[in-house]
Amino acid sequence: MAEEELSEQQELFEHYRFIVDPGQSLLRIDKYLFSKIENVSRTRIQDAANAGNILVNDDPVKPNYKVKPGDIIQIVLPHPPREVELIPQDIPINIVYEDNDVVVVNKEAGMVVHPAYGNYSGTLVNALMWHFRDLPLFRTGELRPGLVHRIDKNTSGILVIAKNELALNRLSKQFYDRTTDRKYLALVWGVPNPPEGTITGHVGRNIRDRKIMQVFPDGSQGKPAITHYRVLEDFSYVSVVECKLETGRTHQIRVHFSHIRHPLFNDDEYGGNKILKGTTFSKYQQFVRNCFEILPRQALHARSLAFDHPVSGKRLFFDSELPDDMKMAIDKWRSYISSRENN
């Protein structure tokens, strides 16, 4: 399975922290960082500085700042593009907003975000390369669509993509600083108790199966992960839950809800593709199987995203309707429970 299929809002930036040695002579910060960070160009460092992503003693600095002994330097760098040849492909995508700096897309379930092993074509990035084909920088291959976050292949919903280096750096900083606002809708097995709460627990690669993630409650492995949730509708056997991401770890929502024994409906990687709640009556069992057929994927949709525009600074908010498969499955549960209560 491609790594891109594994990433639920995966971090697409790197964070570095350096304390300047007592004997360090005055030196431009771009030169200093160029010597400290492997496989990074001076241009990438300068772009980060110009976007406000290099802090010295908590204040942003420009590339020509001279480092001094004792300075505490922090830098957030967007990951460089993978060395995969990107082929523009005329694939329809649902663009909900676009200007000179960003494009916001409502991704369909089933589309991989970025080419990688096993998925070299047919991805969102291939489609964006076609969409941007008349822009001079994209035409020469100097620029690629700037991913600052991703959602899983079989998760639908809202994504923002940067169209230039400045936007990429500034959006990456917002995701790192957690100033974006991301909300998802999920259909989960059972009803979480309490109906509103927070799930915490480090998330890292599963020890036995590297294709999936697991929660490490003791924090011994993985990275800190925080998911806030609220039950919107209680159907007894399943419930509709709104999730607000504070962090963006691979498969975060899916693995967190599996950890608290409320896996996402029809999530085959985290145990949600079995009948986990309800009766043994054949009529009920057939009803659930029908719902699985209507919704042949994990029941997760990236419903909304808010961020500050990387150039104007204006707060932008985008939301999206539930896709038909999730809507139909939820409607079926609503009708099932309603008819059962009325009998």
What does this structure look like?
It is a single chain. With 343 residues, the protein is α+β, with helices and mostly antiparallel strands. The chain folds into 3 domains: 106 residues, 2-Layer Sandwich (Pseudouridine synthase); 66 residues, Structural Genomics Hypothetical 15.5 Kd Protein In mrcA-pckA Intergenic Region, Chain A, CATH 3.10.290; 161 residues, Pseudouridine synthase (2-Layer Sandwich). The chain contains 8 helices and 18 strands. Strands 7, 8, 9, 10, 11, 12, 15, 16, 17 and 18 form a 10-stranded mixed sheet that branches. The N terminus is likely disordered.
Mean pLDDT: 90
Strand percent estimate: 25-35%
Largest sheet: 10 strands, mixed
| CATH arch. level architecture of the largest domain | 2-Layer Sandwich
Low-confidence stretches: 1-10
Helical region count? 8
| CATH class value of the largest domain | Alpha Beta
C-alpha end-to-end distance = 46 Å
Shape: globular
**Helicity, in percent?**
10-25%
Order of helices and strands: EEHHEEEEEEHHEEHEEEEEEHHEEH
Structural class: alpha+beta
Domains (count) = 3
CA radius of gyration: 22 Å
Question: Count of DSSP E strands?
Answer: 18
Oligomer: single chain
CATH fold node name of the largest domain: Pseudouridine synthase
User: Any idea what the CATH superfamily of the largest domain is called?
Assistant: Pseudouridine synthase
